User: Fold this.
Amino acid sequence: MRIRSFLAVLGLVGILLLGGCGTKPLGGSAGGGGGVPFTLAVTDQPPSGVTVLSFTVTVTGAVLQPNNVSILNTPVTIEVTQLQTDTDLLANATIPAGNYTDLILTFANPSVTILNQALPLGACTVGEICQIAESISPTTVDFNTSPLPLTATSGTPVGMLVDFSLNNLLQPDMSLNLAAPGGFVLSQFQTVTTSTVLGTATDIAGVVTAVGSNQLTFTTLEGISVTASTSSATQFFFPSATCSANNFTCITTGEIVAADLNLMGDGTIQAATVAFEDTSGESEISGTIVSINSATNPPTFGIVIRGSAPTEANVTVGEQATVTIESGAAFVIDEELVGLTSGFSFASVADLVVGQEVLVRVDSLTTSTSPVGISSSQIVLRPSEWTADVNLINLTNANFTIGALPSLFTAAQPTNIQALTVDTTGSTVFLDLTPASVAGLAAQNPVSVKGPLFNTVASIGSPSVVATTVVGRNANELPSAPHAAAGTGTGRTRR
Assistant:
């Protein structure tokens, strides 16, 4: 998407386009010839006192000047809070060679879902989870300083990166001020070749719509069509009971899969991994758990919806849903994560905890109520991502704790969660940390962590994250991108 979702979504939103040279929505073409890939990295630093559970905004236009060269051929809606550790990619397009002085992005329809722990915001009282359709002013952003102007040379790929900071853009009244200082940073990738990985997004789930020769097309939970190629290096994660071959032949139309995706320098998308999520014909809704009621019969839990596959009518990202757990329901760990999570349990309602990202099978759906009602016979645990401050560091065990958590955790009942334990493995990716390991962390510094979250409160006193990604953050600056030339600032990218 996620990715979650950019790669989170991913290619998904290369989203934003950005850049100086053309881009197309994944799955659509804006032109022929040499493509120009664009990537977007979005940081999620919510205003103090408010936990942002979802933030969506639609990019309705992306134009290079002069000559009104459009690099977006259809509006794209992005979910920003899923991009704390991933690069959000959109696509590629072909633009004429020449000089460009401005990149103008147009936005519409921002919506935020918050846990309000500060002051009343309109009808949203303190302690309440609310979805707010907010105002936006202005509606456009004009990038016209370094790395612009841009000289686009025929046959030479160009990649640009935009950092989007909710911490600066969201105002105390939850309005979106696109002109706020530090809201965006535009930078340019250097020495781009066709084999350069401009960005990655992990665990992007969706329903397969087509299978070709060493490539698959799937529609993500956010409703974006992505076509990704596979190679001999692509890893497959299919349970033997589903497909013993555990290779490309396991992919079938209608199946729900999750993939780690790379945006390449030539604008194509490559799948680093493809993992099984559910069988063909099933409908899935993803969400973040915000409440648990295990005392009822049957037990239920509440989520803020992240997306659905196939797309569910009358269900929107950011709204709440109550999930009823059917008798005998299966609790499953995301297939790609099984090998990393030995010793952790996700087998019953007792293993649920707020903050978990789950994919629920929709056996029945009621959209006439608020929250939406879902009855489910399968709950899949997927990676979630949160930003908080480093507390204790244990170099011997390669783990650490994070505190100053979003209020979703600290306000959780019946458990008041004050810290998360983060376990790292040999597969954990460390970004913007020197050295690239737990040793690169410093107490009290913020980090973004992505990975499956387990309810280990009873055994160690706090939930545990098995980290797939750890990103160092600077509380006063946007992250940096080692291969980006600084413009108004720099952004980071995953490799």
